[in-house]
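Kindly go through the following sequence and its backbone structure tokens. Advise at your convenience whether the structure tokens fit the sequence:

___
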Amino acid sequence: MPWGVRKSGDWWEIYKPGVKKAVGHSTTKEKAEASVRARYAGARGSGERLSERTLSMHELEQLCVTAMELNELAEAGWEVQALIFNKDAYPSREKAINKAVEMGFNTGTSSETDETWRVRQSPPEKFSEFRMQKVEDNISLVHGRLK
């Protein structure tokens, strides 16, 4: 995983292994871990995975914007409630769950529609409102604001 969480005084720092300076701070461990998951999802995997091919400037900008948006949501009290995988790219439950794990998420409970797999991270009852964000062509995250 390209990011980690560590305690530093009153803060929980988000850091990249091998880099001394923190890349982010949170007031709780849970928020820091949510930020790490968001960064991981926004980056579509580890730094090594991103380096397997050359990214265009547009793709890099999109990844940076997505990671920043996800981090801001986590800092504002939003959590990832579920991941939604399009069946065109993830034809089986197993493939969707494996991708969720690869992205740093729990397997949670899963369900399906005719076109998608949903991998829940938390029960919807924990949240007062929801918003969806596309992180890849065939993957969206459902964010929930904690009650």
In short: The chain has two domains: 1-76, 77-147. Residues 77-147 form one domain. The longest helix spans residues 57-75.
